[in-house]
């Protein structure tokens, strides 16, 4: 997905939820910080944008996924789709809200999107720890778009309920760094 | 080791939807076992299966996707020629406008290979719970196969089961 496609998705999602304040949380959140031309190919290959709303989150997530989600007519027309998610189900380090990145892309109007900051995004991905998540983080590290030290620091800021994941995330990052030396 | 079961890093990268360099990196970090044939790395096919086909607990969104694709499977069983043809057209259209770096092109090409393998293989992938199955469904070419009403009913029944 490219920035203009994400802007389209955000316009549509905000219109359906009747809420301008939306947070992009999945891999496409990286487009808040970097243009697609500056990203490794694997970072933008997803056809799905995960978005969350701060108010009345569950209802709006269902509404958005129902209207423009997977296999919808929106998906059929544009070849990409939206998945409404709830923030409480995502492993984000404490203070992530203050570190969110904003966008001044006019084509997203009336959406006022915020994007999870890349290091926070990397931690969320490494807690999920699917192959595609590891490849995504690995590509960002290799491209120098995020750094090992900050990812480890952020992993240590995960809420208590993710305490069991901190050591596996830090081990993975340190192993990646050691290989790069 | 039987060389017929060894894959090049390029072949593995195609399966994983990543670059060849990343496969090399995964090998060097010990995340993928490999052997050397001369100067080249070769990855046992079993190793690729281990990575992509391990049945692991899938997240709620992946299960919802699975439910939707089970409905697609019903249509595939009832009218295979029509569903195969329409998904092929979707892929051809997508491929014609996916000629840029970072496009989902590798996934679309993988789906075309699966379609070329026939209805049986497609029906397996539609309900495959492995990571590869989940990733492929997220780039599904089966848009337009199920009606909006079927989709809505499926999402509702999924929510009732997973509430």
Automatic annotation (TrEMBL), chain A:
Alphabetized Pfam families for the sequence: DUF6036 (PF19502)
InterPro entries: DUF6036
Organism superkingdom: Bacteria
Residues annotated as domain DUF6036: 15-140
Identification of the protein by name: DUF6036 domain-containing protein
Species: Yimella lutea
Lineage: Bacteria, Bacillati, Actinomycetota, Actinomycetes, Micrococcales
From TrEMBL, chain B:
Any one GO MF annotation of this record: DNA binding
Matching InterPro entries: HTH_17, SinI_DNA-bd
Organism field: Yimella lutea
UniProt-recorded name of the protein: Excisionase family DNA binding protein
Limits of the Helix-turn-helix domain: 6-50
Protein origin, superkingdom: Bacteria
One Pfam family cited in the UniProt record for this chain: HTH_17
């Amino acid at each position: 997905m490219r920035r203009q496609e994400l802007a389209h998705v955000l316009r549509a999602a905000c219109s359906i939820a009747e809420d301008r304040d939306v947070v992009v949380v999945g891999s496409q959140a990286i487009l808040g910080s970097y243009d697609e031309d500056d990203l490794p190919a694997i970072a933008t290959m997803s056809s799905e944008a995960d978005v969350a709303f701060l108010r009345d989150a569950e209802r709006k997530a269902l509404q958005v996924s129902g209207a423009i989600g997977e296999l919808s007519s929106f998906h059929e027309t544009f070849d990409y789709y939206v998945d409404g998610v709830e923030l409480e189900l995502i492993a984000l380090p404490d203070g992530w809200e203050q570190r969110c990145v904003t966008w001044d892309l006019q084509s997203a109007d009336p959406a006022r999107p915020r994007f999870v900051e890349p290091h926070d995004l990397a931690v969320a991905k490494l807690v999920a720890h699917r192959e595609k998540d590891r490849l995504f983080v690995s590509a960002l590290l290799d491209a120098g778009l995020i750094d090992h030290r900050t990812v480890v620091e952020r992993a240590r800021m995960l809420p208590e309920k993710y305490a069991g994941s901190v050591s596996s995330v830090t081990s993975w990052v340190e192993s990646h760094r050691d290989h790069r030396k | 080791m039987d060389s017929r079961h060894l894959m090049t890093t390029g072949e593995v990268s195609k399966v994983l939807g990543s670059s060849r360099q990343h496969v090399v990196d995964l090998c060097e970090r010990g995340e993928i076992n490999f052997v050397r044939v001369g100067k080249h790395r070769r990855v046992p096919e079993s190793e690729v299966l281990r990575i992509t086909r391990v049945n692991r607990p899938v997240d709620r969104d992946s299960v919802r996707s699975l439910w939707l694709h089970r409905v697609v499977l019903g249509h595939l069983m009832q009218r295979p020629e029509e569903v195969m043809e329409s998904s092929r057209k979707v892929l051809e259209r997508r491929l014609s406008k996916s000629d840029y770096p970072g496009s989902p092109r590798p996934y679309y090409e993988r789906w075309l290979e699966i379609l070329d393998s026939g209805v049986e293989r497609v029906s397996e992938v539609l309900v495959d719970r492995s990571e590869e199955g989940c990733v492929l469904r997220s780039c599904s070419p089966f848009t337009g196969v199920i009606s909006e009403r079927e989709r809505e009913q499926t999402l509702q029944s999924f929510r009732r089961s997973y509430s």
